[in-house]
Amino acid sequence: MLFLILGTASHLGMLKKAVVYGKECIVTTSLVELSSSTSVIHALRTLKYHVTGFPWVESGNNFGGIPIPSFLGSMRSLTYLDLSAASFGGLIPPQLGNLSNLNYLSLGNDYYSLLYGTQLYVENLSWISHLSSLVSLNMNWVDLHKEVHWLESMSMLSYLSILQLDFCELDNMISPSLGYVNFTSLTILSLRGNHFNHKIPDWLFNNLSNSLLQLDLSANSLKGHIPNSILEFRYLNTLDLSINQLIGQIPECLGQLKRLELLSLGYNSFDGSIPSSLGNLSSLWSLSLLNNRLNGTLPSGLWLLSNLEVLLVGNNSLVGIVSEAYLKKLSKLKSLDMSSTSLIFKVKSNWVPPFQLEFLEMSSCQMGPNFPAWLQTQTSLWYLYISKSGIVDIAPKWFWKWASHIDLLVIDLSENQISGNLSGVLLNSVYIDLSSNCFMGELPRLSPQVTELRMANNSFFGPISPFLCQKLNGKRNLQILDLSINGIFGELYYCLTYWQSLSHLNLGNNNLSGKIPDSWGSLFELEALHLNNNNFYGVIPPSLRNCTSLGLLDLSGNRFSGNIPSWTGEMTTLMVLSLRSNRLIGNIPPKICELSSLIVLDFAYNSLSGIIPTCLNNFSSMATIGTKNDHFSVFEYHSAPMNDDQENLMLVIKGKEWEYKSILKLVRTIDLSSNGFLE
């Protein structure tokens, strides 16, 4: 039996360590040499590679997009071939169809391989029907869109037990020419992330009912209802139909699939109430009904599912009170999401939960008015998201100590009325959002691992320099800092240059003063800078031209003087430039017209003069709306785990000030009003 794994090989084309006839030895023959050494190929009975990845790859392998060697098709004794996540690219050689003894074939790539342009593809799959002994096939992320008869080819593999074709660009799993699909041995079928755009096909229920254990059709644009024939899958333990366009009520008959352990129906358009029959699924450990149109109360039977570890029902129109009495049997619960519902989470102040949560998402769900004291019993929590949860209370001192001592990566308490003095408090989580609350005192201390800190719209008061100049035990990783709309004062000293990883900085609407230090030009990662509505003065420092990634610059509402620097026209990434309400003089430099990406230009309420340059018509982005999304990455960027965030900007339109956030990328405006331009 020949057993070959290249998915974790160490050097390009080099087989480093092998087990041959049960004895470990070193093999230094390259792939090219193997192709000509047919005697070696046919002599080997067992060949297994256990080697580390490339120095520049964390795991797996990187063959740099080279094609899979066609000579592998001559290794006719091969029973196990794993080329997955090895960054092969190009056409899969049809010679692999010669491997008639093959039981296991894995050619699957991953998302990261696509980023580096190393996707595999096929012209057709006729060769795969020759692999008559195949039991397991993984072709995830292989482009199969040219093969319209993929179902017929796969159907000829009568021994196939595991079929994984995730993200393969397939667009049809209904074949009128195929009266019968021969998948009688199939136990695992995963087709997620394709483009089927039709109803769930009938053939699934015709001959899979006695064998299928796991079915994943998620993210496929599937339409219609879940048919009652789903009941035929009497042995099914995993059913994932999430991220589709399914409608209607969730069928009661799902409660008869007694072996179900995972049921995921999130991100569809199911309506009506949650079937009470789901309470019969005693083996269920994961239930996701997120982002549907479900209404009514949570069935009482759900609280009896003692094996439940994951319960996700957020973003539905659910109502009712959830008390500690309902939760007492959920001792294994690890993930709970009731966000964006009308549920009321009402427990006693001395309640001790029977579970240890790892993930808690309760935003826009009533938890208040008291701060949830039971959180201090949770020592495994890494994700805490309780924004807009109606809390009107003082954050207890134990909370900050507790958050620093457990591996709590995400804290979001935003948009409540939580108060407390944070002077001297150490913040230790990776992502922290305390914005739109009533926190006060001086700015807290940070640990080096804090990556995003949002404390806008609070009552912090005190000088900014102790915060910027604080000593950290390790490299600073802060990328996003928002301290806007507070009472912070003082000058911005050179200390900000300690924070070299900053990409989004918002210090707007404070009482900061002084000049912008020249050293700020060393913030090379900076993409968005808000210093609006402070008391800064002096000229706009030329060192800012070194911030070559800057896409948004808002210096409005200050006392900057002098001319508009001509070097701003060299900042080709700039999309928003607001210098409104300052003391700028002179002409608009013609070089500004070279900013082809600009969509917002605001020079209003200054003392500018001269003639308005006619070349302002050159702003090509002003005339375009349907621009590629990556063009607006400065406005929409990846934030905390499972969340994306957006830049905001205050603009004066027809005399009224408006905040633009989600639609900022659609705004197109030039405002030169209240200056002294010649007509």
Description:
This protein has 679 residues and is mainly β. The strands form 8 sheets. The chain has a 24-stranded parallel β-sheet, with no helix packed on it. 41% of the residues are buried.
List the total number of helices: 8
Low-confidence runs of at least 5 consecutive residues: 8-59
Task: Give the % helix.
Answer: under 10%
Report the portion of residues in β strands.
Answer: 25-35%
Amino- and carboxy-terminal Cα gap = 87 Å
Cα-based radius of gyration, to the nearest Å: 30 Å
Largest sheet: 24 strands, parallel
What would a concise description of this structure say?
The chain is mostly beta strands and 679 residues long.
Write the layout of secondary structure elements.
Layout: E1 2-5, E2 17-20, E3 23-26, H1 31-36, H2 38-43, E4 78-82, E5 90-91, E6 104-106, H3 111-115, E7 120-121, E8 136-138, H4 150-155, E9 162-164, E10 188-190, H5 203-207, E11 214-216, E12 223-224, E13 238-240, E14 245-249, E15 262-264, E16 269-273, E17 286-288, E18 293-296, E19 310-312, E20 317-322, H6 324-327, E21 335-337, E22 342-345, E23 359-361, E24 383-385, H7 397-405, E25 410-412, E26 419-421, E27 426-427, E28 431-433, E29 438-441, E30 445-446, E31 452-454, E32 459-463, H8 465-468, E33 480-482, E34 487-491, E35 504-506, E36 511-514, E37 528-530, E38 535-538, E39 552-554, E40 559-563, E41 576-578, E42 583-586, E43 600-602, E44 607-611, E45 636-638, E46 644-646, E47 649-653, E48 656-660, E49 669-671, E50 676-678
Parallel strand pairs: 1-4, 4-6, 5-7, 6-8, 8-9, 9-10, 10-11, 11-13, 12-14, 13-15, 14-16, 15-17, 16-18, 17-19, 18-20, 19-21, 20-22, 21-23, 23-24, 24-25, 25-28, 26-29, 27-30, 28-31, 29-32, 31-33, 32-34, 33-35, 34-36, 35-37, 36-38, 37-39, 38-40, 39-41, 40-42, 41-43, 42-44, 43-49, 44-50
Antiparallel strand pairs: 2-3, 45-46, 47-48
